[in-house]
Amino acid sequence: MKSLAALLRQGGMPLPYATSSPLEIVEIDLTPPGPGEVLVKIESAGICHSDLSVVNGSRQRPLPLIAGHESAGVVLELGAGVKGLKVGDHVTSVFLPSCGLCSECTSGTPAFCSVGATSNARGEMIGGGTRISFNGAPVQHYNGVSCYSQYAVLDERSLIKLPDDIPFDIAALFGCALLTGIGAVRNSAHAKPGQSLGVWGLGGVGLSALIGAVISKASPIFAIDPVASKRKLALELGADFALDPHENLRDHLPAGVLVAIECAGRADTLKAAYEATSRGGTTVTVGLPPASEMLSISALSLVADVKTIRGSYLGSANPRVDIPEFVDFWRAGKLPVEKLLTSVSPMSQVNEAMDALHGAQVVRQVIHPH
Question: Domain Enoyl reductase (ER), which positions (predicted)?
Fold first, then answer.
């Protein structure tokens, strides 16, 4: 099957991307879905910092690849043995497929699936190999999704069925931004009502974490970001304080926050979040900084202040449990996803969208492949 898609041949090309065009719109070939696989018409795809980190070269992945890992669409065709979906179903993608058989999956932590993580690192489907080619040469998948494309072949384990009445631009954010941000608060930090909480970095994931804090009834809630418009939005979403990073959180809460969520993907921001964490508190990091960045903290403080640092990937979530709950929150008006959408653009403007994300003035952008 033919599909227009955004092909990345080389990371680290110069800014602005609107000029250097690292993501090239080309016509690819897709093989039909194999056993356990699904052909999806991609209706909406989110622009996430994880995609930017591959484009700018700070996160290495096998190239060439078709980018994109946050999407929503419609099932067009089923491979043999697919039981949980049918043609016409609306779906959102999850960027870490879970095999269901490894020790992580069988222990109830599919977000830690070692099989899915290995296939993602190889640029392959979880079932092995690639279903994408360009001019006869194989092209790698990105996190098993590759949704900057009109159509995509995904493993059934990378898809979650959603109700048909959720707009695609909203549904696209369920599988990454919301899952990662809300999951960091609820599944990783286990935030409880009345606990003080801070969020560092107010992009799509960070503001989702803020929403998760509001849902969890944390109090007070601090939102920290250098961009004034994001701080303003954070207050609208329920933050009690919105601070510039140069402000001292402890001027407002001398003991510091019991829960700190770092979403900026920078080692210096993680250090700031840790230092603003109270005695006995927990710092959760979801950002993906360049591998070269090192974290330097007082080793003594971990013991003397009884602190915890925890990494959170995919929000430490079980997507098949968490995403249906997010749907309920959205229907109840507790999940104002619409406020996270900065813009909607055609896929032909994907490089401009990457420029906007690099400029840090946007929250979540969505592109339409068709």
Answer: 18-367
